[in-house]
């Protein structure tokens, strides 16, 4: 029983990191209708910025906050100077551009900081606390708590604020949004900036555990996409719950399903993607898009 | 007092010249129709005004040169474009569509009052208020598109083919409501319409476009009396 709880809590923690990336993907999708494959790469870049700042002697929390600010600006600039050229064209082209951006950022980070693993200090103490008879790391709890707060803020933004409504309106129909006076270009930049900030938070949370490398979040991106599909592209709460389910199932399957083991556990999210796409394409929590002609 | 003035407006899509010197004058609280065959440049004229197509010539609104402005800047001046095909925001509820229309307004109370006004003007929307716009019928979507324009408290509304694809009785309902809106609000209007009979129930004057130019301009009464207009646009 102790082992089971331990696996569940660890799964929750890794699931939270997938959740943060998934939330960023949902945010960009809500604001622009695109899936940004470079979301993880952009997040890694901000982690490098934080790491570089701590090496200059800044306290960790200050370095992370500055890296988040950097990410907001970087995300907005990527939208303004790169994505905007493709936003009016075929969406598939824009998606391929984000894949290219991922490759570019990874290469850039490797060129600047090498591909060696760098130690990234942890925001939370390495202590453990006892919980239901098992010891749980403070880092797992802290990571999960940060993600829950981010999720609630994002849900509140979309559902409860004028800015959130405006971001959704721009994503659905930029021209109609402009006819109502919405500054479409500025709103797209805000959407990309906010998403990049979320990615920065995810990277800062996971970097101590994975150690910092240019491809640190490549795997996490696959899990995040699985969470996005499982949870539904329209629901921040949905994708977080889905990311947790994936994190937990992956851990449990590795231990309790002998033929999967640790080698095959990466297959778990893919199996989930297939099943969900076949059975419930709008995701577990997403709303079905009704097209009426 | 003239609110909107177009002089010698030109526009092209690539090498194809669509507008070749269109003029139009809309007085404060007035309503002007634009009639013409398919491809005559009716929709493009509206798009030139709202800044969605690049135009030459002169376009002034309330004495201010608005040619070359972005659509959201034009909207902020008080021009609401109800586009062909309605442009409702499918994944948002009826209420959220109306709230998006009021994006630039700061007066919360006034916004709530205007939502109530829209629902009074278009009672069909009342029972669909929490439905997604994509689930509405064509007529209801048209009503919502007009409602969204009302919510921005415009001084001028650009209506593009509000009757397109609607059953005749639905089209009449929509135009009845717009006429009531015009009387009660004093919003000036530019009305593009294939169905000239419907247009004449709303506008004071109209211009007929042919291949991107004004072929005829006159009051509704004058135009209705002309044989060529009757033959071409009024069904005999």
UniProtKB/TrEMBL annotation, chain A:
CDD domains: TM_PBP1_LivH_like. Coiled coil: none annotated. Signal peptide: none annotated. Its main location: membrane. GO terms for cellular component: plasma membrane. The keyword Transcription regulation does not apply. InterPro entries: ABC_transp_permease (IPR001851), BCAA_transport_permease (IPR052157). The keyword Cell membrane applies. It is a multi-pass membrane protein. Keywords: Amino-acid transport, Cell membrane, Membrane, Transmembrane, Transmembrane helix, Transport. GO terms for molecular function: transmembrane transporter activity. It holds the Pfam family BPD_transp_2. It is found in: Cell membrane. The chain crosses the membrane at residues 6-27, 34-54, 60-82, 94-114, 145-167, 187-208, 220-249, 255-279. Belongs to the binding-protein-dependent transport system permease family. LivHM subfamily. This is Branched-chain amino acid transport system permease protein. It comes from Geodermatophilus aquaeductus.
From TrEMBL, chain B:
Pfam families: ABC_tran. Residues 4-236 form the ABC transporter domain. CDD domains: ABC_TM1139_LivF_branched (cd03224). Gene3D superfamilies: P-loop containing nucleotide triphosphate hydrolases. GO terms for molecular function: ATP binding; ATP hydrolysis activity; branched-chain amino acid transmembrane transporter activity. One of its GO terms (biological process) is L-amino acid transport. PROSITE patterns: ABC_TRANSPORTER_1, ABC_TRANSPORTER_2. Keywords: Amino-acid transport, ATP-binding, Nucleotide-binding, Transport. Belongs to the ABC transporter superfamily. This is Amino acid/amide ABC transporter ATP-binding protein 2, HAAT family. It comes from Geodermatophilus aquaeductus.
């Amino acid at each position: 029983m102790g082992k089971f709880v331990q696996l569940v809590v660890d799964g929750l923690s890794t699931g939270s990191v997938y959740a943060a990336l998934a939330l960023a993907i949902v945010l960009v999708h809500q604001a622009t209708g695109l899936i940004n494959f470079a979301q993880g790469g952009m997040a890694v870049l901000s982690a490098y910025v934080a790491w570089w700042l701590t090496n200059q002697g800044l306290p960790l929390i200050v370095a992370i906050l500055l890296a988040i600010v950097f990410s907001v600006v970087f995300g907005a600039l990527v939208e303004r100077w790169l994505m905007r050229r493709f936003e009016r064209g075929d969406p598939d082209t824009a998606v391929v551009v984000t894949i290219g951006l991922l490759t570019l950022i990874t290469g850039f980070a490797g060129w600047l900081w090498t591909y060696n693993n760098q130690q990234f200090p942890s925001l939370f103490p390495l202590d453990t606390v006892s919980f239901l008879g098992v010891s749980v790391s403070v880092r797992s709890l802290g990571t999960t708590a940060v993600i829950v707060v981010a999720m609630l803020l994002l849900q509140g933004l979309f559902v409860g604020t004028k800015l959130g409504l405006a971001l959704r309106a721009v994503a659905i129909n930029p021209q109609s949004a402009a006819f109502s006076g919405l500054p479409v270009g500025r709103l797209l930049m805000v959407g990309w900036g906010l998403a990049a900030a979320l990615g920065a938070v995810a990277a800062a949370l996971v970097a101590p555990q994975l150690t910092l490398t240019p491809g640190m979040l490549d795997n996490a991106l696959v899990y995040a996409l699985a969470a996005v599909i499982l949870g539904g592209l329209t629901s921040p709460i949905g994708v977080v719950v889905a990311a947790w389910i994936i994190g937990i199932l992956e851990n449990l399957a590795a231990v309790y399903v002998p033929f999967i083991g640790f080698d095959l556990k990466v297959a778990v999210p893919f199996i989930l993607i297939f099943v969900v796409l076949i059975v419930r394409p709008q995701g577990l929590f997403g709303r079905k898009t009704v097209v009426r002609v | 007092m003239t609110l909107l003035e177009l002089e010698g407006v030109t526009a092209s899509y690539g090498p194809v010249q669509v507008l070749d010197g269109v003029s139009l004058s809309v007085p404060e609280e007035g309503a002007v129709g634009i009639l013409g065959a398919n491809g005559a440049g009716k929709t493009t004229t509206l798009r030139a005004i709202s800044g969605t197509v690049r135009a030459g010539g002169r376009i002034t609104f309330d004495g201010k040169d608005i040619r070359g402005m972005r659509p959201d800047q034009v909207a902020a001046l008080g021009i609401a474009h109800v586009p062909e095909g309605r442009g409702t925001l499918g994944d948002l509820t009826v209420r959220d569509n109306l709230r998006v229309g009021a994006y630039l307004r700061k007066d919360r109370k006034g916004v709530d009052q205007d939502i109530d006004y829209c629902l009074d003007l278009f009672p069909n929307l009342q029972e669909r208020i929490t439905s997604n716009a994509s689930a509405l019928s064509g007529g209801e979507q048209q009503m919502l598109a007009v409602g969204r324009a009302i919510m921005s408290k415009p001084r001028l509304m650009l209506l593009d083919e509000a009757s397109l694809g609607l059953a005749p009785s639905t089209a009449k309902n929509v135009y009845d409501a717009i006429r009531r809106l015009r009387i009660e609000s004093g919003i000036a209007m530019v009305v593009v319409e294939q169905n000239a009979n419907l247009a004449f129930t709303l506008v004071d004057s109209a211009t007929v476009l042919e291949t991107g130019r004004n072929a005829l301009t006159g009051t509704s009464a004058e135009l209705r009396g002309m044989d060529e207009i009757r033959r071409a646009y009024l069904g005999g």
